[in-house]
Amino acid sequence: MILHPHPSLAQASFAQASRRGFLGGAAALAAGATLPFGGAALAKAPLSNTQSGYFYRFMLGTAEVTVVSDGPLPLGDPGASFLGVPKETVYGMLENNFLAKDNVVLEQNVPIVNFGDRLVMFDTGMGFSKAFGPTTGRLLKSMAEAGIKPEDIDAIVISHAHIDHIGGISSQDGKPHFPNAQIYISQIDYDFWLDDARLGTPFKAFGEHARANLRPVKDRIVFFKDGQEFLPGVQAIAAPGHSPGHHIFRVASAGKSFAFLGDLTHHAILLTEKPRLEFAYDFDPKQAVESRVKLLTILADEKTPVMSYHFAWPGFGNLAKAGDGFRYYPTPMQMLRG
Q1: Alpha helices (H) along the chain
Q2: Do 212 and 206 meet the contact criterion of CB atoms below 8 Å apart?
Q3: What pLDDT score was predicted for residue 337?
Q4: Cα distances (Å, whole numbers) of residue 321 to 252, 272, 302, 327, 331
Q5: pLDDT in tens, 222-278
Q6: Residue 62 has pLDDT above 80, yes or no
Q7: Per-residue pLDDT for 6 more than 70?
Q8: Measured between alpha carbons, how far is 242 from 291 in angstroms, rounded to an integer?
Q9: 176 preceded by cis ω (within 30°)?
Q10: Closest Cα to residue 240, out of 213, 270, 262?
Q11: Which H or E run includes 320?
Q12: What is the 8-class DSSP label of residue 178?
């Protein structure tokens, strides 16, 4: 008969042995650290200071989605942009999520959906404007990194005519960047931002940029309406407030779908966990809050995945209710395909 020691004694013996082994190994490492390398070369290399291409792909049913970036968009002091609570509350929310409180930086995630028979792009970034600094205006470069040619874009869907969403349609000298694309936008937003009245308001720069980008393609602009499936697999959903004609879009393929949020919410923490905060760039802050709460509730209840234009790269994930607001769960990136 083989006698086994008492379990507690065996565990104590194992712990002592493990501790002795660990301490012995640590001592050996410490001693080895003082020894020469015996002629082995130290690996030296310059810092690369490079990064991979600014694009990411995933499947949606039978469609392929390529997310490209127009580059980070810094807003500066978050206490000046996210309103309705004391600045310290805004700073605290950011710090609690390990985010800088002195400068809030938004992304510009532009999904390009390949439905097999057409390429549809949603929003276009800042273009030639540097109103928010030098890191924006990268759309064409990101597309090149992803192997997508501007002339291959069949449709550009615009959530609203703000400077960071229509800025990539045309060059500074009025030449369209996407020569074969029809431009889809709500007539409410088109008429509002191209109205001469905008030029005499604090939104003058927005009006000027809308003119510079939309007038060169006015013969290729198509207007959609709330609830309309104006392209196969793309349905418009009105979400006014941030801009009078702001819309989000349900994008679907082979039974799968996501909602492209445009500017329904600008930040995964500040305007998502506290959706009743107001944003300084909202045309009608109260109406924007109403649209945000209503539509985020629907999307969370339906468990519809979302693609946010301004969330951290690449901006794709899910929403769930959390107290009086919502929590955003980013979907892990899948780098291996096939």
Answers
A1: 7-33, 87-96, 139-145, 163-166, 187-193, 204-214, 285-302
A2: no
A3: 80
A4: 23, 10, 11, 6, 17
A5: 999 999 999 999 999 999 999 999 999 999 999 999 999 999 999 999 999 999 999
A6: yes
A7: no
A8: 9
A9: no
A10: 262
A11: strand 316-322
A12: -
Chain center to CA of 324: 23
User: Residue 124: what pLDDT?
Assistant: 98
Q: Could you give the CA distance from residue 325 to residue 271 in angstroms, rounded to a whole number? A: 9
* CA end-to-end distance (rounded Å), the chain: 56
Q: Check residue 44 and give its pLDDT.
A: 85
For residue 225, give Cα distances in angstroms to 33, 196, 207, 260.
71, 24, 22, 16
- DSSP symbol at 134: T
42: confidence class by pLDDT, cuts 50, 70, 90: confident
Alpha-carbon gap, residue 214 to 222, rounded angstroms: 12
- The alpha carbon of 204 is separated from its chain's Cα centroid by a whole number of angstroms, namely 26
How far apart are the C-alpha atoms of 263 and 241, rounded to whole Å?
A: 10
Query: What is the C-alpha separation between 194 and 271, in angstroms, rounded?
Result: 28
Could you give the CA distance from residue 188 to residue 100 in angstroms, rounded to a whole number? 37
CB 213 within 8 Å of CB 174: no
9-30 tens-digit pLDDT: 444 444 454 555 555 554 444 5
Strand order in the sheet with 306-307: 229-231, 234-238, 247-253, 256-260, 306-307, 316-322, 325-330
- The count of other CB atoms within 10 Å of the CB of residue 39 is 5
